[in-house]
Amino acid sequence: MNESNTLILRTAALFLMPLQLLFSVFLLLRGHDEPGGGFIAGLVASGAVVLFLFSYGVREARSLLRVDPRDLLAAGLLFGLASVFPALLVGDPLMTAQWWYLPMPGGGTLKLSTPLIFDIGVYLTVVGAILTMVFALSQAESDA
Amino acid sequence: MLIAVLSGFLLALIAPAVCAVSREWAGWTLALLPAALFAWFASYLPGVMADGAQVITYPWFPALDIQLSFLIDGLSLMFALLISGIGTFILIYAGGYLKGHPDIARFYVVMLAFMASMLGVVLSDNLISLFVFWELTSITSYLLIGFDHEDMNARRSALQGLFVTAAGGLALMAGLVMLGTITGSYALSDVLASETVLSEHPWFTPLLLCVLAGCFTKSAQVPFHFWLPNAMAAPTPVSAFLHSATMVKAGVYLLARLSPAMGDSELWTLLLSLFGGMTMFLGAFMAITHTGAKKLLAYSTIMALGTLVMLIGIGTHYAMVAFATFLIAHSLYKGALFMIAGILDHETGTKDVSEMGGLARLMPITAIFTVVAALSLAAVPPLLGFVGKELMFEAVLGAPVLGGLLIVLAVGAGVGVMVAAGVIAIKPFFGERRETPKHPHEAPVSMLAGPVVLASLSLLFGLALFIPEQALVGPVVTSLGGAADKVHLSLWHGINVPLMLSGLSLVIALAIFAFWSRLQPSLAILREAGGRFGPEAGYFRIMEWLTRIASWQTRVLQNGTMGNYLITLVMTTVLITGYTLLSQHGSTLRVPVPALDSGFAWSIALLMLVSALFASITRSRLGAVASMGVMGFSVALIFILFSAPDLGITQILVETLTVILLVLVLFRLPGFIRLSSPLERGRDIVVAIFAGVLMTLLILAATDLQFFDPISAEQVARSAPDAHGRNIVNVILVDFRALDTLGEIFVLALAAVGVYSMINLRAEDQRS
Amino acid sequence: METLMAYVVGVMFAAAVYMMLRRSIVKLVIGLMLLSNAANLLIFTVAGMKQGAPPLIPEGAEAPATAVADPLPQALILTAIVIAFGVLAFSVVLIHRAYEVVGTDDLDQMKDTDT
């Protein structure tokens, strides 16, 4: 995919992308309570990168991402697997959800849990999978 | 205990990193783990000697009654000690043997994983987890035999080993499930303590045959023995560890483990004694027909495995004592001898002992300990092997069935291994010095450590018999259901029948050994005849038929026309499902006219109908893709309208990405053209209408009938209090049904990797 | 509402099967897309359709105040949508690759080219 020459798209992409990425993290974190979650957030985040890719080309998008999307894929699967085992350590059956409440400075508490780790794994896998495909495809396009 | 078993897997994960850091010391570094495990298992010994068995349980899938529980008693502890103890020396040895090998890290990974699986097999208390570990040993063994994966022969041997053991594994699984069903528990400790008399149950014979099929294939009993000598294609540390000291004993372990529960049946005694005896004799006989050091040892291992199976079959008190003693003795000397065979191969560059000679002056230490280990193999006093052999004769004399036959077989086997021991100890080291492809030196310390320690232990245990008697043999006999206080090992029983039998076999062995070189050609002819007509030939014939049948049925069923498959699939579904639907609910099925309640929903439905129909009749690709877009967004609207916000958002996002995907790929394909004739189109339309009508009727029936309450009521109720989440859909995805989701993200990842590799394949094509 | 959707889903299945029976590979892709949409809607419809009752629990509450739409089929469909996308991408690329290698988009001719 050659980069687009439209000035409007390029400018808009530059502003929209960070917002979209931020929004995807927001969706991911609130997913347990409100509509959202790993799948949706992952789709939004990959949509953000794909928008950037369409306006600036695949090479720019790659260097923006810094990591290979395949690494994201692997990291996502590892996160998913990692959430399986903590239960075993405290003597619960495999995959039982574990919750940890960490007191934060300022009086609040931080809720951490294996479902959250798992959701992050889903998020990373979705982003990694979609970007792996799209990058590969547009690379082939621009090589051809 | 959990950590002890799993630590091998964990270390396997980081083994490549350890290899990269510690380089040629990797073997020594990694050996620290089995050494620590050995010490740790040894710390259980006093407890087991005093109180007997312990069971340690961790929940795994409690809903399916699958626990990760470990049973620690004399039997499992002895195996655990052998595995971790010999494993320590094997890792050190491998560091020397495979020094500088480019794939050494991979070797350590699989080896550690194997060791952990083997510990899992012998320590598992749950039948299911035992089976899982059992299969893991088959798989790791496959990877290790085929370690030299560029060698055709190694690959073939690896596959053969996998086929034989995995086929047995399937039978074993059936057997274990039957066992669990009969006794009502999958815990070994419960099975053994169960009141049910297994041998009187109607399923006993199939159960026994299934379990035996699993154990016999794994432990290389006749007629499944042929894979073991072929497995010698593996690097020597593997042969020494897997195919002599540990994995092949998994079958023996399981038989011994189950013998208190099943051993009272006559069929068990008969089959085990018969097959064990035959294996013992054939193994010993085949051993002397070979000149390759490793093959020779492999056959003598088969002989030992046969002996062990036979002893379990005999099942008397003497047999149990003999079983434990012989097992320890064999693991010690066979581990040592295999490592020595590796040293010889490594130093001289040939595997054939008839090409070696006079090495004793160049490799004095190796020579001394070879002789010690070989004497134990040949069962010469005062080594532990002698004690084992004497007990074995004693047990055979008291055998309940087939007594005469077993004595003949036992003496024959005794002769065979004595000759084999002579060949391995005397041919390479003494006599005339012969030129070998490489100029031999004394082996490095890492390679000598194992043989020296193991051979010395054979001698030490033989001289100080109270150590194995108290620490190992007694507890093992207890866990086999015998009385430990009656165990007494000694070198000298006075002049009795076993001693005379030993003497007899020694005399015959000396005679054969003197003429061994001259007998070789005629033995080789026998060996070849065995190869042509033996069970291995049967294996090849089965494999050949398998491929022939597979290609025949592929030609018949898969004729390559996609349309035919699809029509077959759709029409089969329509007929079977449709028949069931109409015959069961035909009378209650109503086909109502939809009510005109919501105008908005009606217009969305209309939009979907139009886009579906338009997509199927249009001749323009763009038109079809656009109508698919309309379809996708309409579906999203339906989701949002009917209380599924998460689905709506997901559908819209995916729809957007789909358009991008189609833009990137689909428009580089040719446009639509009519390829099919009107007749074909007519046929397809009929098939399609059938499918559509069936689906409509199914939905109507399903919304009408409600057989039971939806299971989600509990999920709704528990979402906030137990799972701390207010979005129930998300809670189901990441908590209640996380295992499903885990599987699904793996599918997604596979699809992505597939796309990536297909595109990169193309890049390579274009470059070339 | 379920009755209306039953007919719509039936038509979608029919259209999907018809498209998948075409010999042109591009039509096969369209058929696949129709099929996955139809399957998702089938599950959604069979579970019962409710307006204005998303399976969410209000803040501070332990359970939804009124009966909500069944969340389990929704969770199943959500993953199905994403998986369908992955499979679609895979098949599209596979088809494209096959077209490049074999040089035809006719499924009936593809079977004769053993490359």
From TrEMBL, chain A:
It holds the Pfam family MnhB. Keywords: Cell membrane, Membrane, Transmembrane, Transmembrane helix. It is a multi-pass membrane protein. The chain crosses the membrane at residues 7-29, 35-56, 77-100, 120-138. Its main location: membrane. The keyword Endoplasmic reticulum does not apply. It comes from the Bacteria. Residues 8-132 form the Na+/H+ antiporter MnhB subunit-related protein domain. GO terms for cellular component: plasma membrane. InterPro entries: CPA3_antiporter_subunitB, MnhB. It is found in: Cell membrane. PANTHER family: NA(+)/H(+) ANTIPORTER SUBUNIT B, NA(+)_H(+) ANTIPORTER SUBUNIT B. Belongs to the CPA3 antiporters (TC 2.A.63) subunit B family. This is Multisubunit sodium/proton antiporter MrpB subunit. It comes from Halospina denitrificans.
TrEMBL record, chain B:
GO terms for biological process: monoatomic ion transport. It is a multi-pass membrane protein. Residues 606-670 form the MrpA C-terminal/MbhD domain. Residues 124-407 form the NADH:quinone oxidoreductase/Mrp antiporter transmembrane domain. Pfam families: MbhD, MbhE, Proton_antipo_M, Proton_antipo_N. Residues 680-759 form the MrpA C-terminal/MbhE domain. The chain crosses the membrane at residues 29-48, 78-98, 105-122, 128-147, 159-183, 268-289, 296-314, 320-344, 365-384, 404-426, 447-467, 495-517, 562-582, 594-615, 622-642, 648-673, 685-703, 745-763. Residues 63-108 form the NADH-Ubiquinone oxidoreductase (complex I) chain 5 N-terminal domain. GO terms for molecular function: antiporter activity. InterPro entries: CPA3_Na-H_Antiporter_A, MrpA_C/MbhD, MrpA_C/MbhE, ND/Mrp_TM, Nuo/plastoQ_OxRdtase_6_NuoJ, Proton_antipo_N. It is found in: Cell membrane; Membrane. Keywords: Antiport, Cell membrane, Ion transport, Membrane, Transmembrane, Transmembrane helix, Transport. Its main location: membrane. GO terms for cellular component: plasma membrane. This is Multisubunit sodium/proton antiporter MrpA subunit.
Automatic annotation (TrEMBL), chain C:
GO terms for cellular component: plasma membrane. Pfam families: Oxidored_q2 (PF00420). It is found in: Cell membrane. Keywords: Cell membrane, Membrane, Transmembrane, Transmembrane helix. It is a multi-pass membrane protein. The chain crosses the membrane at residues 6-21, 28-49, 75-95. NCBIfam families: PRK08600.1 (NF006372), PRK09094.1 (NF006573), PRK12659.1 (NF009302). Belongs to the CPA3 antiporters (TC 2.A.63) subunit C family. This is Multisubunit sodium/proton antiporter MrpC subunit. It comes from Halospina denitrificans.
